[in-house]
């Protein structure tokens, strides 16, 4: 049996193909994918910058679908794409994201830009049947935001409502982080990005302060209590360290590049806490579903939906900055009636 799948065929080349349907291994179930989001890491692979993702490969890991077997058979589920051993000290202490044996769907295993994918049953999170699949598909980037903010809160000395916070990057993780901070009471959140279309989207959903470094004056030095870098480039790290105040918290989430340095002297002399925040735990995923379902993060009307057959064009549009959407979600199947 074959299925439709969007395949990363070569650098900057995506193809809609007929691919063999997956076969569940021990402990796995098959999930029929309803909707799946395009992540920044998918774009990283698209540019040929991720040696772990070797073409041909079905990308996609931000997904909602219907379990075809197992204890959740017939239910709508969110996929936690991070596959871990479940036995090491990190897994056993709730830090599955640090498992040294971790992998993920859409990394070495075929991902969610397809009619079906196979994934361990323990990685499924049931969601309410009345939760829109496109909202549920946002659970993975939302969990990343939940995890990053939780790490930052461990290093705070005053309520978030008193803090000035800069979020660098207006993609889905950056926007969701800003919305989460506002939900938690932070009244002074600025989102910075070079994509003016995405900044307009931020303003439309209630982020009043936006900044475009291509047009606006640089951020004042020592101005922000927190800086969250959802881009992760040498340039954005420099911006973050310039803008962070003494005693502030710099949370590094983005993975655009590994090269470059930042002001280590300032970090030391001014006791800036620099925190790396990687992905999420299963608990973060469950919390993310609750936030999304409850409406805590708003109407989520800033996503853009396209058909799987339009996936190659969606990658190209994201690459060229032609969309105002912080997230493009591919529709793969309809919810059964």
TrEMBL record:
Task: Please verify whether the record's keywords include Cell inner membrane.
Answer: no
Q: Which domain of life is it from?
A: Bacteria
Under InterPro entries, the record lists:
ADH-like_C, ADH-like_N, GroES-like_sf, NAD(P)-bd_dom_sf, Zn_alcohol_dh
Instruction: Give residue ranges for domain Alcohol dehydrogenase-like N-terminal.
Output: 26-128
Domain named Alcohol dehydrogenase-like C-terminal: residues: 173-290
* Record keywords, A-Z: Oxidoreductase
GO terms assigned for molecular function: oxidoreductase activity
What protein name applies here? Galactitol-1-phosphate 5-dehydrogenase
